[in-house]
Amino acid sequence: GQQLNQSPQSMFIQEGEDVSMNCTSSSIFNTWLWYKQDPGEGPVLLIALYKAGELTSNGRLTAQFGITRKDSFLNISASIPSDVGIYFCAGQLRRAGGGADGLTFGKGTHLIIQP
Amino acid sequence: GAVVSQHPSRVICKSGTSVKIECRSLDFQATTMFWYRQFPKQSLMLMATSNEGSKATYEQGVEKDKFLINHASLTLSTLTVTSAHPEDSSFYICSARGHSSYNEQFFGPGTRLTVL
C-alpha cells in the first residue's frame, strides 16, 4: 500500500524561528494536504495542493507540491506559541469517475516551541 | 461553513458491549463520509468509506462485522463498534466530503473510546 514518509518526527525550536517539514511518497497522489492537529481534536486543514509544482501560501505557511507528485514540504515562518501541535501531511487520489479516496496520512511532525 | 460534529466526544464502556458513534455534517450535504482511527501518538488510519445509501467500503484488515457503518442520510453516518475489546480503545475521527470539485474533506472533533 501507499506510505507517506514524514520528517522530522519532532522539532524543538525557539519562538520566532522558521520551521520546515516534508513528506515523500512511494506513489503518486492527485492532491496533497497539510493538517494541524491539537491534542484531543480532529485535524484542521492548513493548505491543499492540487497541481504538480504548485506553491501555495496561507499567512505564515507555505507549501509546495513536488513536480513528481510524490513529495511536498511545509514551511512556517516566524513561529509563534500557538503553532505548537502535530502537523500531518496527507495524500489523496481522485477516482476516474469522480469522487475521491480517503486520505493516506504521514506519521506527523510534533512541533514544540521552547520559550 | 463546513462543520462536522461527532457524538459522543468521549465514551467509556465495558468489554463485550457495543458503542455507536455519530458523525454529522451540520451545514452541508455529505455524499461521502470517511472513518479513521488514531492510536496514541500515531497517525490517522483510514478504516472505511461510507457513501449515502450504499454499503461502506472497508480498508484491508478492518473487520466489517465488527465496525458497522450506516450512512442513512446525506448528513449522518454512524459507526458501531460491536463487542468492543480493550484493543479497540482509540480515537475515532470522521470526515465528510461535500460537493466541491476539490473533494475537500472536513474532519470532526473525534471520539475517544475507552474499553475497560
Describe what you observe in this structure.
The complex is a heterodimer of chains A (115) and B (116). With 115 residues, chain A is an all-beta fold. In chain A, 0% of the residues lie in helices and 52% in strands. By secondary structure, chain B is mainly beta. In chain B, 0% of the residues lie in helices and 53% in strands. Chain B has no helices and 11 strands. Chain B has strands spanning 4-7, 10-13, 19-25, 32-38, 44-51, 57-58, 67-73, 76-81, 90-97, 105-107, 111-115. In chain B, strands 2, 4, 5, 6, 9, 10 and 11 form a 7-stranded mixed beta sheet that branches. In chain B, strands 1-3-8-7 form a 4-stranded antiparallel beta sheet, with no helix packed on it. Chain B starts with a strand and ends with a strand. Chains A and B meet through β5 and β10 of A and β4, β5, β9 and β10 of B.
